[in-house]
Amino acid sequence: MPRKNTVPLMPNLRWGAPLLALLLALAGACTRHPISFNSRPDVAPATMAGAPDSLTRTADSVAGRPSLSTARRVAITKAEERAAKDKEKDAQRKPSKKKKIFLGERIKRGFAKSGGKGRNQAIEIFYYLKYFQQPNVQAPARFYFDPKKHKIFKAAAGELDPSAKILHGPYKKLQNNKVMETGFYALGVKHLRWERFDRNGVLLSKIHYEMGFPRDANITYFDAGHTMLKEVVPYVNGKLEGDYARYTATGQREWSGQFENGRRVGVWTNYWPVKRNFRHFEYQYPESGFDPEVEEPELLKQFTRDGLAVYDKEKNIDKRGEPEPVAPAGAARATCCPSAPRVAKYLAIRS
Hints:
CATH topology of the domain at 216-346: Histone H3 K4-specific methyltransferase SET7/9 N-terminal domain
Radius of gyration: 47 Å
Largest sheet: 9 strands, antiparallel
Strand order of the largest sheet: 14-15-18-19-20-21-22-23-24
Number of strands: 24
Strand content: 35-45%
């Protein structure tokens, strides 16, 4: 008979013991074991059973009920409670903004734009008095800001209107994001150091002022007590530079103008000596002290002692050969009528 193929059993018996041990280990791992909640294994369970609950102690309870707060409420008066609330409100309140003050005066910030748009536009950043104060009437030049016209003006002789915004504080002029001029104002007049630059940032001039008067100016008075101002001749580094002014013995302004590079520039104004701050003549000099010097200035305006226009180049008015215009009814007239002096006499600067 043919012999059947049989599988030997010895190799299977060799792996049987390890498999049996593995099955027993898995069965033991899946068996549930009781877990003890005793957090103090050194104390017997019987002792723990007799200990009181720490959450229900008398010291930590209020009216027999458990409480997590052991602080006692302290009785305070209404005044103390109100003071505590006010203190809490003060701590929560936002800090107030610092007041802008310059030389002891409250100021406000302003700006003005002039010129065209783009690179040619000039921006002026300045400050002015929050409350009006009259500038010194004898200062050579006074400045104020007109919010309606949004422009800084150089005041004429005499007192200013209370609605004017008197410049007071730092000043800066920018053009194409470059600083062109910097300085300070004090009660409407220039103060401390003023600097001017060209478009390349090169310093053109630097002048120091003391409440409107150039620090190096030649100032003369009518009296020995230096109370009656006579003339202010501005000098910078030995050269005429800045605002010029001359007054009469009665304190009225007689001449006002400006020097640059040792020459007269801009508009020079002459005033009637018998009428307070009434203009008589206005003459035009070159705009810059570096322009060619002219032999004689150009007459722009002429007025009577009552303030009526006799000649105005811009408005094409010329009544110089006609009889003097009659002042309006009710207008004050001078008691005397001085003859009109020559132009050369008015332009001569007395030392």
